[in-house]
Amino acid sequence: MTVVEDTGARSSVTSGRRPSRLFRNPMSKIASIPLIITSVGIFVGCTVWTIVYSFTNSRLLPRLEFVGLAQYERLWSDNRWLTSISNLGKFGVFSMVFTLVIGFFLATLLDRKIRGEDIFRTIILYPFALSFIVTGLVWQWILNPQFGIQHVVRSMGWESFTFDPLNNPQIVLYGLLIAGLWQGTGLIMCIMLAGLRGIDEDIWKAAKVDGIGTVKTYIQIIIPMMRPVFITSLVLIAAGIIKVYDLVVAQTSGGPGLSSQMPAMYVYSYMFGGQNLGQGFAASTMMLLSVAIVLIPWAYLEFGGKKRG
Amino acid sequence: MANPGTLARTDMSGPRGKKPKKAFSASNIFIYGTLLLVSLYYLLPLYVMIVTSLKTMPEIRIGNVFSPPVEITFQPWIQAWSQHCTGLVCNGLSPGFWNSVSILLPSVVLSIAISSVNGYALINWKFRGSEVFFVILMLGAFIPYQIMLYPMVIILREIGLYGSLTGLVLVHSVFGMPILTLLFRNYFASVPEELFKAARVDGAGFWGIYFRIMLPLALPIFVVAIILQVTGIWNDFLFGVVFISKAENYPMTVQLNNIVNSVQGVKEYNVNMAATLLTGLVPLAVYFVSGKLFVRGIAAGAVKG
Fold this sequence. Notes:
The complex is a heterodimer. Chain A is an all-alpha fold. Chain A has helices at 2-14, 26-31, 33-53, 70-75, 79-110, 117-125, 132-142, 149-155, 172-197, 201-209, 214-225, 227-242, 246-251, 263-273, 277-308. Chains A and B meet through α2, α3, α5, α6 and α7 of A and α2, α5, α6, α7 and α8 of B.
């Protein structure tokens, strides 16, 4: 170790003065310029810019005339925003619960050392490769009341059957949910399956010796052991839900009425359609806030826990 | 296996554990039954897309979405690709396809080139503050894009790229950076440090080591990164809508949505489904060709959310 220090000292002596820290391995710094611009310039810079301008009364163009919390007060008294939030809440809770339950359930089925695991996994995961636009449009067609599921059930003899989620404000969120689950459960299933594969075989042997049934072993032993996997999945699902946009645009365009509006659509229409920038900035800041509420406890658990362990 | 009954049904036989079980035990029937039903649900939309796109409109009107085509026609495909009208322009989806291709190729190359160098520099050429930049970059993966959209529009307008395909390429490269940098950084962290030190002793510099040692080593990770970027960029809708201002420059997803959800004219469901399927073909092809690598890609890309 001392030798290394010596050579370092000698090289700085020969060059006359200590080389500045700034110019040590210069090529690495030059190569990292895109990284620095992206992280500080764009991610931090643009976020801070939007937050600052959310306190102004910008309309057609961004202007630095501060009006305090006026934009937020307007936002939280706007019926469209309140509906978006409640839609997001309902959609979010349902998709979190169903994605976790279905994802875990399918993963356990695939984990039972079955034949054709690859085929089943390929089938369940392929929707994840498709875009939300494609997903939304296909399900819009399948749920079409004239030709789709409702029509099929009626022509089988059940004349009074009604299932028309995309035109019924009461149940439109379920229509979105069916499509969203089709697209996203495969990913969670894969993550859960990886988690299940990481569990020691001996646990199963021990459970068998103790005479605990398969279902009971999963619920009482495996699920508590997979807590980190569940938390990661939950964070992934939540971060995706807050941003949900394309699916709704393709499947319902936010309708009928306001019944499937989402915060991301509110932001887009005020920023690029309605020319009321201040509202768009305030709404997007609220979106960031909700992500932070999800993310900070998770980061604390994840990284705080690692330090201890 | 001597029992001829089980022999005929080998594809349904039980787990290959130490203790052979009966093929038709209650739990096996439950597992395979459920999986088959679930598979039907997942395959249904693909089936519906295919059959609808091969039917004629009169046939669609008398049938339902699930009925197979009586008379197969490829006319909807031709129409969706090159003849369908949006407004006054009748070029179908093909301009959108070529826009998406010319957005995709430079975006994939640029984002992977930058991110692989980032990952390499972050592991082997740490400098003061490099970790801080990395953490900020990772946080950026979780920030809702909506909050950065407007200032990015201003930046692109200032440098004269707003509305152009080049501008969109830059946007994709920026937003692809967090996950790709993480991917490459984690990979380069697993490369033994002695390899790097030996190359240093031999006098190789930053780029020498990158091109001669790290790049060839990381080829599998490059494939994973390509899969991730191709599907991600092809499926993008939000950036296409926001950063492209002229309709003729729209990527395929945006054009598809405009075609299918346009309120004017008679709805041609067969053309719509052909167009939808056409848009989905590229990521589907990537998915079915890449197989296990795709799973590895999404496991790494899961943080993208």
